[in-house]
Specification:
Structural class: alpha+beta
Strand order of the largest sheet: 2-3-1-4
Number of strands: 4
Length: 95
């Protein structure tokens, strides 16, 4: 079965408040079997629009990535993120 990947691109407006989101999101990632492949760190926009923070999380399947993203635990984290950032998220199936 192909892996599932959650890819997020986020512009953070309040880094201090965002830390609470990151802590809750990290706990949910672990709970749902996710593996962080990239989070923050060095990035260079080489074409198109970019955001200041990027994340790639691997899950056992596309469905497991969706289960994580729509879980009550991650929803709680998202409620913290919404007022302090703007983001784009997509779930893709691996090859």
């Amino acid at each position: 079965m192909p892996k599932g990947y959650l890819i997020g691109r986020v512009s953070v407006h309040d880094p201090e408040a965002y830390k609470a989101y990151a802590a809750k999101a990290s706990a949910a990632i672990t709970q749902y079997g996710g593996k962080i492949l990239a989070r923050g760190g060095k990035a260079e926009i080489v074409e198109g629009e970019g955001r200041t923070r990027n994340v790639v999380i691997e899950f056992e399947s596309f469905e497991q990535a969706k289960t994580y993203f729509f879980s009550p635990e991650y929803m709680e984290a998202r409620r913290i993120r919404w007022p302090v950032s703007v983001g784009d998220f997509v779930i893709v199936e691996g090859v």
